[in-house]
């Protein structure tokens, strides 16, 4: 059975946020969102841009995501990820348009393996 990304992620709690060449957001239930691309964290008052390749430890608004809950998740028509979190925060990952050989912009996996993967060129594999 194929599930919508929102039904899989909504309600989960952010357990950890790490950045080691990529962003890893560990959610409750063993679900992990991995971001290989640059991304934005929007709040009602600000937008912060992040580049995982810098390998800086999460700080500020990004570190403050620990303990947040996912209010909703969706994939844009072009293959980007929109992860809505409580308190008006949104993690936004644009699609990867680099093409073949690119790792893809983002992926979601669970204890049994991959659940959703953004393919190069903006495609989504479920």
Describe this structure in words.
The chain is mainly beta. 7% of the residues lie in helices and 44% in strands. The chain is built from two helices and eleven strands, in the order H-E-E-E-E-E-H-E-E-E-E-E-E. It has helices at 5-9, 60-63, and strands at residues 14-19, 23-27, 31-35, 39-42, 47-50, 70-75, 81-85, 89-93, 106-110, 113-119, 123-125. The protein has a six-stranded antiparallel sheet with strand order 1-2-3-9-10-11, with no helix packed on it. Strands 5-4-8-7-6 form a five-stranded antiparallel sheet.
Brief summary:
Helices cover 7% and strands 44% of the residues.
Described by strand count, sense and barrel closure, the largest sheet is: 6 strands, antiparallel
Structural class: mainly beta
Overall strand count: 11
Strand content: 35-45%
Identify low-pLDDT runs: none
Strand order of the largest sheet: 1-2-3-9-10-11
Overall geometry? globular
Radius of gyration: 13 Å
The secondary-structure element order is HEEEEEHEEEEEE
Number of helical stretches of at least 4 residues: 2
Distance between the termini: 10 Å
| Mean pLDDT, all residues | 83
Work out the helicity level: under 10%
């Amino acid at each position: 059975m194929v599930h919508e990304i929102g039904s899989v992620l909504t309600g989960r709690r952010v357990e950890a946020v790490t950045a080691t060449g990529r962003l890893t957001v560990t959610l409750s239930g063993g679900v992990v969102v991995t971001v290989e691309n640059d991304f934005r964290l929007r709040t009602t008052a600000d937008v912060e841009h992040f580049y995982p390749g810098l390998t800086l430890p999460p700080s500020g608004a990004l570190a403050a995501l620990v303990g947040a809950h996912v209010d909703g998740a969706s994939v844009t028509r072009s293959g980007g990820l929109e992860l809505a979190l409580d308190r008006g925060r949104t993690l936004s990952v644009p699609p990867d348009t680099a093409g073949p050989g690119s790792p893809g912009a983002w992926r979601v996996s669970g204890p049994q393996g991959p659940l959703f993967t953004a393919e190069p060129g903006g495609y989504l594999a479920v």
